[in-house]
Each structure stands twice: as C-alpha cells, then as structure tokens.
Specification:
Among the domains are: about 5-60; about 70-160, Immunoglobulin-like (Sandwich). The longest helix is centred in the first third of the chain and has 33 residues, at about 25-60. The protein is elongated, with a radius of gyration of 35 Å. By secondary structure, it is of the alpha+beta class. The chain contains six helices and eight strands, in the order αααββββββββααα. A four-stranded mixed beta sheet has the order 1-6-5-4. Strands 2-3-8-7 form a four-stranded antiparallel beta sheet, with no helix packed on it. The chain starts with a helix and ends with a helix.
Length: about 230
C-alpha cells in the first residue's frame, strides 16, 4: 500500500470516528473517541509530510544523494551541574524538522547523535571515552531553537575537568615535568650550559667572566665567615 492509499484509509477512519463521536452520549466514550481522533490526525499529518518529501526527491533525484551525505558536528560547547554534563550542539533550523529525525544513543562511557535530513544532509557526532561513567537510562536530549541539548546524567556528583579521557591525557602530557625535590639552581646551571655551548666566542667569554667573578665573591664570603 503506497502513501496515498494509507492517507485515504486514515482519512476514512477519521470520518468514521467523527460519526461515532456524534452518536456517543457517555463522556467516557467521547473522551476515548476524541483521543483516537487526535492520534489519527497526527498519523495523517506525518504521512502527508512523508509524501511531500518523497515528491521532492522524485522531482530532484540529486536531493537523495545530498540527504545521504553525513556531516560531522563540530560546533558545540558544554557545561555541567551537580547531576548533569550538558553538551550544546548548534544546528540552525533543527527545531523545524520532525523530532524523530534527531536520535541520541547513550552508553556508560559514550553518546552518539544523528540528525537526519537537515538542510539536505545528515549531521552526526560521536563522543567516546567520556571522562566519567554516566547513567544511560537517565540521560536524554532536548531540542531547542537552533540547538540540540544533550543531558548526560552523572553516576557520581563529581566535577568534570574535561569531557573525555583523551582530553585529560592531553592536558597531563602538556604539563611540565617538575620534580618537587629538584634544586632550583640545577635548572639555572642547565640553562647556562646550554647558552655556553650554543653561544659564540664573545658570549662564552662573558659567561666565563661572570662565573669567575661569582666564584671570587663566594670565596671572599667564606673567608669573612672564617674570621
């Protein structure tokens, strides 16, 4: 059965429900019939939208290939509360497409987002190796104007320093390795040795002179202490 036949069948069902509603006298029965009417009306609207999309694809065959293209979502930001980590995905016009076109899957350490048929293409984001475990069942999505909000429920009320383990490792790698027991003068000596080895003759003479004067002052200080 094609979409046109499905729509005709639903419209016939809706007409019959209207006839039954006119004859119904009990409020409970009326409420059930009205609820079913709304359900059928939504199905008809969805089928008509689907039919319009199909007609556009038939009129422009290239649209199907464009819709199949999937772009990576890179424009996002994040913050957090005590219970949730919130990721904000900026997607212009996302609130105008059917909500079922936006799907989010959660696991304990990841989430993936797929937005179908927005501006002629799909949009996807996959975030693996989250910094801390999340509760997949209590995590959710919210669609706002030009934005998809991903709500990751924390398993522990702990502040996240970053989103993923990879980011954490990158930050730790960038930190300078400083030994707490290291003598500060060792760093200065290493720097002077490097400058001496790479410097010209004039630079070497200057360093030698400064070193000699420093040693003379040190020796004079020690002699004064002996007195």
């Amino acid at each position: 059965m094609d979409l046109t036949e499905q729509i005709n069948q639903l419209e016939a069902d809706l007409q019959e429900l209207g006839s039954l509603l006119e004859k119904a006298e009990r409020k409970g029965v009326q409420a059930v019939l009205q609820q079913e009417q709304r359900k059928v009306e939504k199905e008809i609207a969805a089928k008509r939208h689907q039919k319009e999309q199909q007609a556009r694809r038939d009129a422009d065959p290239a649209a199907a290939s464009r819709a199949a293209y999937t772009a990576k979502i890179t424009n996002y930001g994040w913050d957090q509360s005590e219970k949730f980590v919130k990721i904000y995905l900026t997607l212009k016009g996302v609130h105008k497409i059917p909500s079922e076109n936006v799907t989010v899957n959660f696991t304990e350490r990841s989430f993936s987002v797929l937005v179908k048929d927005l501006d002629g293409k799909n949009h996807q984001m996959i975030m693996n190796n989250l910094l801390c475990p999340i509760d997949a069942n209590d995590s959710c999505k919210k669609i706002k104007t030009d934005m998809v909000l991903i709500m990751c429920k924390k398993q522990m009320a702990k502040k996240w320093d970053c989103l993923t383990q990879v980011e954490k490792q990158s930050k730790e790698k960038d930190k300078p390795a400083i030994e707490e027991t290291a003598d500060p003068s060792d760093g200065l000596m290493s720097m002077l040795k490097k400058i001496y080895s790479e410097g010209d003759d004039e630079m070497k003479r200057t360093i030698n002179k400064a070193w000699s004067e420093s040693q003379e002052k040190k020796l004079k200080g020690e002699d004064m202490m002996d007195l």
